[in-house]
Design a protein that fits this description.
By secondary structure, the chain is mostly helical. 56% of the residues lie in helices and 0% in strands. The N and C termini lie far apart (63 Å).
Amino acid sequence: LRTIDYALKLNPTFVQFTVATPYPGTELRNWAESKGFIENDSLTAITGYDAAMRNEHLTVEEIRRLQWLAHEAWEMRWYRVARRVLGNARRAASEIKRWLRFQRATIGGR
């Protein structure tokens, strides 16, 4: 959680929270295999975006939850929410104006 807090304090314009990924041929992979930490050995699961291994403190599900929490903590900052809400309001207003133009052109033009 300290890492998430630190990332948010930096106030970046973009974030990408990935998880430690045991790519074949790496020291991390060798270590994880020796400890029995590999949970999903499929190469399609080794992406950096989904947990394929646990560690001595966290299960795969706990790692996934922390990754989700990190993304949500960043996305739910008040100004990001406000930007989305206002952006949607502007889009909604634009769509209403477009609809009204269409109505005037089709109904009013008949």
